[in-house]
Structures are given as C-alpha cells and as structure tokens.
Amino acid sequence: NEINLAAETSGFLPLDDFEGLSHYFWRQMQIMDVSYINYASANGAFIGVERLKTGSFLIHETLESDWQRLTTYETNRFGDRTSSQSVIDSNRIQDEGWYAAAAAAGQPVWSEIYQWADQPDVLSLSSSYPVYDDKGQLQGVMGVDLSLSDIGAFLKQINVSPNSQLYILERN
After folding, report:
1. In angstroms, rounded to a whole number, what is the distance separating the alpha carbons of residues 40 and 21?
2. CB count, 10 Å around CB of 145?
3. Which helix (H) or strand (E) element contains residue 9?
4. How far is Cα 69 from Cα 166, in angstroms, rounded to an integer?
5. Which residue, 47, 104, 117, 159, shows the most beta carbons closer than 10 Å to its own?
C-alpha cells in the first residue's frame, strides 16, 4: 500500500486510470505473494486484481457511473483483459469492512477477518490505506488482502526445529 501511495503521489499511478491500475496491480501480483490488491474511490469506483488458486488472475472493476455493476475479466499472460462477465451487486464498496475501517480511522489499518462477499468460503485479512488529496479530502482506499488459507500454506512450509514454537496472535 505504501508503494502504491508513493507511486500515486509522485504522479506515476493515476487513480482514475483503471486500465493502467489493473495492469499495475497485475504486475505486482507477479512479484508479491498476496491474494488481492485493490483500490476503491470515495465515489464508488473499484478496481482489483485477484489471485486464483490455479495461479491465474482476475480483474474486478466497478465504474463510478454504474457502481452496482461489477465486471470480472479473465486475463492473459500479459495481464490484458480477455473475456468478461458482469453481475449486479447492490452492496456499496464503501460499506465493506476493509474500506470503511480505513476511512473511519483516517490512517492505515488491518481489517477484522472477514468472508469475501462473492466467495463466502474465502476468509481474508486486509491491510487498508486511506488516500487523501492535497486538501485533506478522502479520495479512496487502497487495500491488500491475505487469505487465511494462503497464510496457512506459508506457515506449513516454514521449517521449525523440534525445540521451537510458532505463535500467531490476534490482538483482540
């Protein structure tokens, strides 16, 4: 999130260019082992890239002019959008926990563990970062998700000696 915010404030990552954002997030997914990278504007627009269990990626997009329509694009090996499917979703992105928590806190936050609305079998944790303009007005929220199954897979591959213990703590 900090890298994305730095790119945005430097003028390299225009947040209203969803085609460019989707390619940028897709490229990041090639490097970072995360489940989802996204941005949602305060006006209802949303762009995100999801890593599938198969290793391929989907682009999810909602435009401000049609905030109830979520369009999902499959991608080719270059991150270009290929086939698409649209669904009507009356849930406002700003009401989702990952967005609302960062907007309310006014600073970066970790979300509570939550289920993805479109995939209830996925439990996830989000790092969310509010984005402000020069006048201090909220422009939107950037987020990165880690699915609990991906965290579990990472923990399984750690070599821990028989005399060691590994703990995961949730603050609450």
Report:
1. 11
2. 23
3. helix 2-9
4. 43
5. 47
**Spatial distance between the Cα atoms of 140 and 171, rounded to a whole number of angstroms:** 26
List b or e across 90-118, with b for residues whose CB sees 16 or more CB atoms inside 10 angstroms.
Answer: eeebbebebbbbbbeeeebbebeeeebee
Instruction: Kindly report the pTM of this predicted structure.
Output: 0.88
Residue 160 corresponds to which amino acid? V
Say how far apart CA 151 and CA 158 lie, in whole Å: 11
Q: What is the largest CA-CA distance in the chain?
A: 58
Span 100-117, pLDDT tens digits: 999 999 999 998 888 877
Which stretch of DSSP H or E encloses residue 88? Answer: strand 81-88
Higher-confidence residue of 80 and 167: namely: 80
Spatial distance between the Cα atoms of 46 and 41, rounded to a whole number of angstroms: 6
Helix (H, G, I), strand (E, B) or coil at 71: strand
Q: Provide CB contacts within 8 A for 102, sequence distance 6+.
A: 108, 109, 128, 129, 130, 141, 143
Q: How does pLDDT run across 11-65, given as a tens digit for each residue? A: 898 999 999 999 999 999 999 989 999 999 999 899 999 999 898 999 999 998 8
